[in-house]
Amino acid sequence: MRKRFSFSLIAGIVLTGLIVLLSLISVFYTPYDGEAMDLMNRFSLPSAEHLLGTDHFGRDILSRVMDACRRALSGGLLSVTLGSLLGIMLGLAASLSGRKTRELLMRFTDALAAFPTILMALMLAAALGRGLLPSVAAICIYMIPSFSRLTLSMADEARSRLYIKAAVSYNVPARRLILFHLLPPLLSRLLTQLTSSIGSAVLLESSLSFLGLGIQPPSSSLGMMLSEARNYILTHPYQAVPSGVVLMIMLLGFNLLGDGINNMFGDRHA
Amino acid sequence: MPDNILTIDNLYVEDTSTAILAGVSLCVRKGERVALVGESGCGKTMTLRTLLHMLPEDVRIRSGSILFKGTDVLSLKGRKRRDLLYRQLGFAGQNTSENLHPLLKVGRQLTDFYREIRKCSRAEALERAEKLLVSLSLDDTSRILSSYPGELSGGMRQRVSIAIALMNETGFLIADEPTSALDAAVRVQIEDLYLKIAQETHMAMLLVSHDLSFVRKLADRVYVMYAGKIVEEGLAGEIFSSPCHPYTKALIALSDIRNKSRDEDLDELGGYVPRDGRDDPRCAFLSRCASSCAECTKPLEYRKLSRTHYVRCVL
């Protein structure tokens, strides 16, 4: 039996906990208004007044990072939740339906997977206007294929198992079969996938806002802050540090958490 | 015959491309222990699965009938089939880790159906389960009942499967490869367990196995199956003392390997069970048969050797 609480689980909980805490606090309190400029006080290094310094407009970096964390986290959670739900439903439907429907659904999934995410985000931004919403939609679409393929392959495998066959033979109603027999054994794997997906969703959201497709100024986002810091990388290299480190902590946290959850459920994968 | 519990008559089962079972007929009488033997891929498990309505996808029943306690199982649907099958027989599946629900505690899996039939309390059902596990030589029963299947060893899981099959005292036990995938020590324990169940309960059994030494100890009657057909049937004594079909002889020779001295050559049975052409009335074993003759290419009859002994071979 594996250790229930592995190092990666604890480290993951600590790191993501830190990020979640920062995001929650930012709802009620930030040291300064993250959008208020102070042009007399640009590019200041960390001090007692500004814990993480100020940026090229003299805005408090800590406040901006806290706001950005909240946006990244909510964007990531929202897109992954939506994407995974749609993906899981698609995968289950494909696994349980006849050959033709199955082919149709999975080719549809292939088509989604084949579509470049950045291009999708561009198109959605053109249609819906720039902002958080189109990038969430694009990331959600990006998440669907991995979840539906994972669900399909696991559901197919589970369906050949004797306890499922027995349940079918025993005439268990379809809804109960899915919710009680088919889905629960898959959940631990899906949860692992979900947690690591939040990491990649956050990264993707940052890439989109780095490119100027996501959250728009003056609101802050990690990708945008990195993108702005790039202009001053030779004169004020510190500018890229806070947002970069926070992004790194976020990704590391979610990946470790996914790993830890996987270990925790390890001996029940059967 | 009124005292038949199970009668399978001329069962044909096919998948999209080819026949899997080509006219399987067998019967199990009250209190009788019947074994169905043959190599992997012969259709033994498929026969059971047809009875239990657990066929893989794409596999269809073409013709034939299965009478269980006088009722045609194949024509039953829904609740009626459930009531007939699940209340009157117990099924112990092959010993893979995939038979039990991985996220339900063993106690729950043992008692659920018992409670539904008896309408009794959880405590009563657990008590019955505990007694049953003790009689299956498991100690530490309270721990087992509150474990998940993944936390048990292979031997324990096999016993739990048997317990599930015995839980409802149905009087008819079906077991699929009860001794496969177990190490030698555990296999002997499980074998002894079946012998004990047989002695104590006198329940009818249908065993699917390729372990002939086990079958020899336990079965009253034996059906030998090859490529979707029964090739020989008879009382266990007849089959083991005077086997007639070359395939039966080969299987028995292979099972005696353990008794042979080291420098003797093994009579290895070369080749594989054919997948196609199973509904051909001619001998399917011809390509692997050591004693074939000119007669062998003609369609085969199911010949009677004695009142109980039949064979599908010209020899």
How do you describe this structure in short?
The complex is a heterodimer of chains A (270) and B (315). Chain A has 270 residues and is mostly helical.
Task: Classify the fold: give the CATH topology of chain A.
Answer: MetI-like fold
Quote the beta fraction of chain B.
15-25%
Radius of gyration of chain A: 22 Å
Q: Which term fits the overall shape of chain A? A: elongated
CATH-level-4 superfamily name of chain A? MetI-like
Q: Which percent band covers the strand fraction of chain A?
A: under 5%
Q: What strand order characterises the main sheet of chain B?
A: 6-7-8-3-9-10-12-11
The N- to C-terminal Cα distance of chain B equals 30 Å
Major beta sheet of chain A, specifics?
none
Write up what this structure looks like.
The complex is a heterodimer of chains A (270) and B (315). Chain A is mainly α and 270 residues long. Chain A contains ten helices and no strands. Chain A has one domain (7-29, 50-268): MetI-like (MetI-like fold, Orthogonal Bundle). The longest helix of chain A has 36 residues, at 61-96. Chain B is 34% helix and 22% strand. Chain B has two domains: 4-89 and 171-184 and 199-311, P-loop containing nucleotide triphosphate hydrolases (Rossmann fold), CATH 3.40.50; 97-169, no CATH class. Chain B is α/β, with parallel strands linked by helices and 315 residues long.
